[in-house]
Amino acid sequence: MDTILSELQDINKELFQAIIMVIAILSGIIAYWLLFKVVSINQKKFPTTIKEQLIKYLKKPTKLLLPLLFLYGSLSIIDASTFWQKLLETFIILNFIWVLLSLAEAVENILKDKFQVDENKAEDRNTITQFKYLKRVAYAIIIVIGLAMVLYNIPAARAIGNTIFASAGIAGIVIGIAAQKPIGNLITGFQIAFSDTIKINDEVVIEGEYGIVEDITLTSVIVKVWDYRRLILPMSFFNDNSFVNRTYKSNELIGTVYFYVDYAFPVSELRTKLNEVLNENPLWDKNAATLVVTNIDKQAMEIRTSFSAKDSSDSWNLRCQVREQLIDYIQKTHPKTLSNIRIQNFNK
User: Which of 25, 54, 225, 267 fits as disulfide partner to 229, beta carbons 3.0 to 4.6 Å?
Assistant: First the structure.
């Protein structure tokens, strides 16, 4: 009889624990639903970017976090074992890492909207670069601290950690030497992000390769080359080497095309034709256009045409089109004035 009563008590205890756990989980789900329902209704009536981004990025991670927190609060009632407490704490920490990472993403988008970032402006590209770099630094810090908390929460892992810290003197020297380059890259990354030297979407020429800065990570800069290859350069490269930033302060560029013609060529006619070609071309931004004789030698004179365009892509296409149309004009109207070598027979 005592055995039966004991078994019934155990069954009742397990049933009670299960009921408490279910109530806790349901309470978390209801709290999550009410929280986002209220925020969503408020967003419909009074829309703001902050609420929009918080709903977008925090809805999924919070769906797990609130039930886990309510469940953790019920452990004292159901008298759960240490194992289950540690396991639940681990899940809460991991979920909280997810929440913080999502929050960092939301903050970046909120700041972009607040400052009305335009990727075509140099100042705004600098802001984008800083946002992205700081977000990646925040990611690294959150993940490292979060995983450290998970490991510290496990008694066996904590004992290993204490052993490691006991020999921290030697380990610190070894780690310091090994981490010299990564730390140097990280510091250089801060310099690049906040010194305006190079920004995301900048057009650069690096060791003869033209490309666009596609991304700046914690340790490297990724440059998309014109033929879709990627140059992946360590941060330290930009401290040790020179490079050309064609859009350092603005996107506007001056394109140039050179022609080599005979002294008999009428320069004023070509200048008039250049103006006609540019006025008919939508790629010209109408800010600058010149045609001048820049050099002469024994055989020909050098004519330089210069014209402005809103960005590197337009400048390249405009140069090609101007070159083609002006060569065609010279061939049709003054074919004998193309650069040539005169040979005179003095025996006659």
Answer: 225
